[in-house]
Amino acid sequence: MSIPSTDENMRYNVTSRGDDTSNEIRDKVLSYLNEFGLIHDEVHPDIVITVGGDGTLLQAFHHYYESLEDVCFVGIHTGHLGFYADWQPEEVEKLVIHLAKTPFQVVEYPLLEVIVRYNEHTRFERYLALNECMVKTLEGSLVCNVDIKGEHFETFRGDGLCISTPSGSTAYNKSLGGAILHPSLSSIQIAEMASINNRVYRTIGSPLILPQHHTCLLRPVNDVDMQITIDHITLVDQGIESIQYRVAEEKVRFARFRPFPFWKRVKESFIGE
Ligand code: NAP
């Protein structure tokens, strides 16, 4: 998908991780785009340029959560190569010229929908994750029934579960031994954290990948303090009846000015040149 040639009506914002290097680059991008006559709009930007790392892009994603249909993201990394932040500081001038002068491709990645339902039945909260949702308990093991597509699958007992998006599969999921998924696969992945497996308790023990139309439902067995982390945001709550996961209807949109294949990014990030 490509969007029309950028023009002087394009509205942009630039966010920074907050360190001196990232702030300096943010100021440079702001001043260049201003010179090109683009409109700086922190509230309703068409494009958001993040300067820092993948964590900075995650923060921007949650900041513009309500307007994902209208916003495209592009990330400049000031540390190591990121999965979302894939432009280098030396390329800032090139990126700015692209932004101001050339039409760009929009690449869409799937997101994870998380619905937390509470025991009062009427109360629920909905969240979107770009990377993953992790569920643990504040104290002791997590014990929960896992339903897949409406059928009981297993009773999990262990440290927790991580449900990730394909683009988040290179983050926490990877540390748990989950598979790396190409973001064109509209799916979610469930990975275990230290499950207890013996003659009494049994879980599948392998990461599971669910397609777009399958739902995963976690039903905690005990009413304990649950720790639910959505990307970098953690909430602790009690009285949770269930947590439902599926591929969200919404997608995150990235501006692409040049090809940078996913597997090349995987290789450069984890294996090296
Ligand atoms: P953080 O603890 O400050 O940084 C976690 C690291 O994960 C950073 O190096 C970050 O890259 C990297 N990262 C984030 N998204 C990634 C992705 N999609 N693919 C590969 N690496 C990725 O936490 P944060 O900056 O607030 O980011 C929150 C994310 O960190 C969570 O969504 C979780 O996936 C990840 N995390 C992973 C582990 C683990 O693997 N054991 C532990 C804690 C958190 P940058 O340096 O470029 O920002």
UniProtKB/TrEMBL annotation:
GO terms for cellular component: cytoplasm. It comes from the Bacteria. Keywords: ATP-binding, Cytoplasm, Kinase, NAD, NADP, Nucleotide-binding, Transferase. Its cofactor is a divalent metal cation. It is found in: Cytoplasm. Transmembrane segments: none annotated. Its main location: cytoplasm. The active site is at residue 54. Its EC number is 2.7.1.23. One of its GO terms (biological process) is NADP+ biosynthetic process. Gene3D superfamilies: Probable inorganic polyphosphate/atp-NAD kinase, domain 1 (3.40.50.10330), Probable inorganic polyphosphate/atp-NAD kinase, domain 2 (2.60.200.30). NAD(+) binds at residues 54-55, 131-132, 157, 159, 170-175, 194. It catalyses: NAD(+) + ATP = ADP + NADP(+) + H(+). InterPro entries: ATP-NAD_kinase_N, ATP-NAD_kinase_PpnK-typ_C, NAD/diacylglycerol_kinase_sf, NADK. One of its GO terms (molecular function) is metal ion binding. It holds the Pfam family NAD_kinase. Involved in the regulation of the intracellular balance of NAD and NADP, and is a key enzyme in the biosynthesis of NADP. Catalyzes specifically the phosphorylation on 2'-hydroxyl of the adenosine moiety of NAD to yield NADP. Belongs to the NAD kinase family. This is NAD kinase. It comes from Marinococcus halophilus. The gene is nadK1.
